[in-house]
Design a protein that fits this description.
The complex is a heterodimer of chains A (277) and B (255). Chain A is an alpha/beta fold. Chain A is built from 9 helices and 10 strands. In chain A, α3 packs parallel to α6 and α8 packs across α9. The chains are: A alpha/beta (277), B mainly alpha (255).
């Protein structure tokens, strides 16, 4: 049985929009296996972030059903951790204290926080070390570079050992080299801990490099139009991104994205210039 | 290094230059003391009326502090209420803006009718004039939370209260200290205003009396005293601000 199971999910943001039949996402069905890494790509404004809200239980579907881990979703899901494009670390807390923040809030850690603080702190430091932030634990976030802040943000999302990690364009604001470094950091974390990852991104190479399955979404209404299994063998090295097979998959996905754009854009043939082979 | 020392002493250099210019102009044009006294004449009055000036200053100071303390308590509570609930914001904000726009000088006579001459009007005017910036700043700090961060915490099962105490309040602290610096100077204005219209002691009363006797130098000495007190308190809060919320001022630290 699938770990995450969306069955014909529709969401309108309020009753008014629902009455008019304006949905942010339409007829979404997907099944994610335990430990699977999926990526969702699509043009901006296609409802990717709405999808995130549905998966974490911050929004309830207007129609359809969502079950996660065999349970119907009825409210915020504590088994999930989130990170966004902006690291949004708290500037008055040191990096390790930022990572500890979720443990001050989520049960069962919350009740033991005072008595087990040492243990939790050791855990947070270990996590920071594993993403290459050793030596920066006691620095303030604003003393860290953008890439380091994003690493810390991912650690914050993972510190309570969630079963599911949701990333909303987490590497969007980083430069190309830092981004590739962080891909590897995320790949290694996922390989070691086998949590589910749902990665929302604009970057096709990123999605193909990291994910087991890539879903393409169309723009308003948000619908899944393509599901593509990425059968590149793991562990994947950055070298794989230069192989013809990789390029072929990226190219194929790019074709799907382009296809959605045509009805909105220019006539066929004059659309985006062809990608280099 | 040299530039840094210069920067540090620049306020004093400017002050000295202004005083010197002032003295020169008054002397050069022979302006009579009862119109516009020279700094030297004001200083002389300081020496002569040191006792009464200090006594009046002390009175004004603690009346101001009392009013200011009330305004911190009320300002923070109101700000907390307005900033954490959209309903309260909608309901209270227009009323508060209207109230803040009322000239406080017009309120003093009413306060005198209610509380008589003396402490009451001074403390209350200081409070009424200074709580608004505190309220607005706390409310702003609380209301401008990043929605992503709120999502991160809400998924973990955080209640509104958790979000407010873990994120909202620390976040609004720089705003709070910023507002204290504004509020303390306003509080002095409030106290002196009340003392001038309806006081029986304090710097405001002293200035009013000196003015009516055409002793301009003494009135100016009162002005200088208030200025100095307000400045000292301002510096105190700046210092507390830097000590407690240095993270919000890292630009100036690096410089």
């Amino acid at each position: 049985m699938a770990f995450v199971d969306f069955r014909n999910v529709w969401l309108a943001y309020n009753d008014e929009l629902l009455a008019k039949g304006h949905y942010a996402v339409e007829d979404i069905s997907l099944q994610v296996q335990e430990g699977e890494f999926i990526a969702i790509v699509g043009p901006s404004g296609c409802g990717k972030s709405t999808f995130m809200k549905l998966t974490t239980g911050l929004k309830m579907p207007s129609k359809g059903s969502i079950t996660i881990g065999g349970q119907p979703v009825t409210g915020p899901l504590k088994i999930s951790g989130m990170a966004f494009q902006a690291p949004s670390l708290l500037p008055w807390r040191t990096t390790v204290d930022n990572v500890l923040l979720p443990l001050e809030i989520v049960e069962p850690y919350r009740s033991h926080f005072k008595s087990k603080r040492k243990e939790y702190e050791a855990k947070a430091r270990e996590l920071l070390r594993s993403v290459g932030l050793a030596g920066y634990e006691d620095k303030f976030p604003w003393q860290l570079s953008g890439g380091m802040q994003q690493r810390a943000s991912i650690c914050r999302a993972l510190v309570h050992e969630p079963k599911m990690l949701l990333l909303d364009e987490p590497f969007g604001a980083l430069d190309a080299f830092t981004r590739e470094e962080l891909w590897c950091a995320l790949r290694d974390l996922h390989a070691a801990q086998r949590f589910n990852v749902i990665l929302v991104t604009h970057d096709l190479r990123e999605s193909v490099f990291l994910a087991d399955t890539v879903y393409c979404m169309s723009r308003s209404p948000g619908r899944f139009v393509v599901k593509r299994d990425i059968d590149l063998p793991r562990p994947r090295d950055l070298e794989v991104t230069y192989t013809p097979k990789f390029t072929e998959i990226v190219h194929e996905l790019r074709g799907h994205i382009g296809a959605f754009r045509q009805p909105v854009g220019q006539p066929v043939g004059q659309a985006a210039p062809a990608l280099p082979q | 290094m040299k530039r840094k020392t210069l920067e540090r002493f620049s306020p004093f250099i400017v002050l000295a230059a202004v005083l010197l210019l002032w003295e020169l102009i008054v002397r050069a044009f022979g302006v009579p003391e009862f119109i516009f006294p020279a700094p030297s004449q004001i200083a002389q009055q300081f020496a002569e009326f040191r006792g009464p000036l200090l006594e009046a200053a002390w009175k004004t100071f603690w009346v101001t502090m009392l009013g200011f303390a009330i305004s911190i308590v009320v300002g923070v509570l109101l700000g907390f209420l307005i900033g954490s609930s959209r309903m309260a914001y909608q309901a209270l904000y227009p009323l508060m803006v209207a109230f803040n726009a009322v000239p406080k000088a017009a309120v003093v006579p009413i306060l005198v009718v209610w509380f008589g001459i003396g402490l009451g009007p001074g403390v209350l005017t200081a409070f009424l004039i200074s709580f608004f910036p505190i309220t607005v700043n706390i409310a702003t700090g609380l209301a401008t939370l990043e929605p992503e961060l709120e999502d991160v915490l809400r998924v973990l099962g955080a209640k509104r209260w958790d979000v407010l105490t873990k994120v909202g309040l620390p976040r609004s602290m720089p705003y709070f200290y910023g507002s204290l610096k504004v509020a303390i100077t306003l509080a002095f204005v409030g106290t002196v205003l009340a003392e001038m219209t309806a006081g029986d002691s304090g710097i405001g009363y002293l200035m009013q009396t000196a003015g009516s006797q055409q002793r301009m130098s003494l009135a100016f000495a009162g002005l200088v005293t208030i200025g100095a007190m307000a400045m000292a308190m301002y510096e105190l809060f700046s210092w507390v601000e830097m000590r407690t919320t240095g993270w919000a001022h890292r630009g100036s630290q690096a410089a």
